[in-house]
Write a structure and sequence with these properties.
The protein is about 45% helix and about 15% strand. By secondary structure, the chain is of the alpha/beta class.
Length: about 375
């Protein structure tokens, strides 16, 4: 048995070693991290719902009614009335016939791709896709081809060489480290021409984009015919936990029968489903949260541009500041931390070599003064 220590030491030498910070108390702009008050700009709680009193109360009521754990997989005795109601409400929200809940987005992405593809098929993926999409492609045993980020010409050339088997194109709706939105109109046209599945992981778009929070698909006015497979997570814009896949009746039935990450895992707690039902209602009934986010994004980008900071092309709450080297990203993050501001330094392999950055994320519950404080610290 080989020693694991040399690889750990190498990671430390290359400044790629990761450490967890210890959070005391709920999510929000003002945090207590490792016992110290901090102003946070690295959460995915984009709409500020993770600590919303109505969402908390719904989870408490759900626990009182259903208990804490689900006790079994959905296909045994774990599928509660709360789960079922949430699936139906998410189906209405996304404008699709059916929805299937998964315990995590990682499991959902793996579960879809492995259920639909196998040997002899091909999955096409953007090079900046989330790791769960990449791993799903690898686990499926289909041939996987990755195209340069957002390069539709490269994708078209790759697809022209496929002679047999099923084809599936998988992309992030909003790319988690760059914050840009996928060219879904072009992707939908290509997939329609090639008769390929188009799968969109809209983890960072749902709740945030679109008039009703319908995400990148609502942003582009795309429906089931153009995007047959929609995956969404519930731990970001919705502020709770879990994930879902939305699509046709036959897609969802196929996943129930064949998706290993659905069949062979315990269902999430019913109380979490009840909390998410409330957050889903708030996402739709409180559009001011999305409007407020856009105001804050504009405020931050305007201030950062005045400072000459190297921003990336993003109109979403994800606002990366490109540092380039790992050392510079860590230095910037450390100097912000000294001033009581928490912004994560993102390093390879999460981003490409030479692409280390600060990943600033904004929430609808940040104040103007807090954003200004971040800009002053960055200056």
């Amino acid at each position: 048995m080989k020693s694991l220590q040399p690889d750990l030491d190498r990671r430390k030498d290359e400044r790629l070693y990761r450490r967890r910070c210890l959070l005391s108390g709920p999510q929000g702009p003002e945090l207590t991290v490792n016992g110290r008050p901090m102003l946070g700009f690295c959460s995915n709680d984009y709409l500020g719902l993770a600590n919303h009193p109505e969402v908390i109360a719904a989870m408490q009521r759900g626990a009182a009614e259903y208990g804490v754990g689900s006790g079994a997989a959905h296909l045994v005795t774990g599928h509660s009335a709360a789960h079922h109601a949430l699936e139906e409400e998410l189906a209405e929200f996304t404008g699709r016939p059916r929805v299937l809940l998964f315990s995590t987005g990682y499991m959902a992405n793996q579960g879809v791709i492995t259920a639909l593809l196998g040997r002899g098929d091909v999955v096409y993926e953007d090079r900046l896709n989330h790791a769960s999409l990449i791993d799903g492609g690898l686990l499926s045993r289909a041939s996987m081809k990755r195209f340069a980020h957002g390069d539709m010409s490269a994708l078209t050339r790759q697809m022209q060489s496929q002679e047999s088997g099923e084809a599936l194109v998988a992309v992030d709706g909003v790319f988690s480290m760059d914050g840009d939105i996928a060219p879904l109109l072009e992707l939908a046209a290509i997939c329609s021409e090639k008769q390929a599945w188009l799968m969109v992981d809209d983890a960072h778009g749902l709740g945030v984009l679109g008039a009703t929070g319908g995400g990148s698909l609502e942003h582009y006015s795309l429906g089931l015919n153009e995007v047959p497979i929609l995956m969404g997570t519930l731990g970001k814009g919705f502020g709770t936990f879990g994930a879902f896949v939305a699509g046709s009746e036959e897609l969802i039935e196929t996943l129930i029968q064949q998706s290993r990450s659905y069949v062979y895992t315990t269902a999430s707690p019913p109380a979490m489903a009840e909390a998410t039902r409330t957050s889903l209602r708030l996402v739709q009934q409180e559009p001011w949260r999305r409007q407020r986010l856009q105001e804050l994004i504009g405020r931050f980008r305007s201030g950062a541009e005045q400072l000459g900071l190297p921003l990336m092309d993003s109109q979403t709450p994800i606002q990366p500041i490109l540092a380039g080297s790992v050392e510079r990203a860590l230095e910037w993050s450390g100097r912000l931390e000294e001033q009581g501001i928490l912004v994560s330094a993102i390093r390879p392999p999460t981003v490409p070599e030479g692409g280390a950055r600060l990943r600033v994320t904004l929430s609808a519950v940040h104040t103007d003064e807090q954003v200004d404080r971040l800009l002053e610290a960055l200056a």
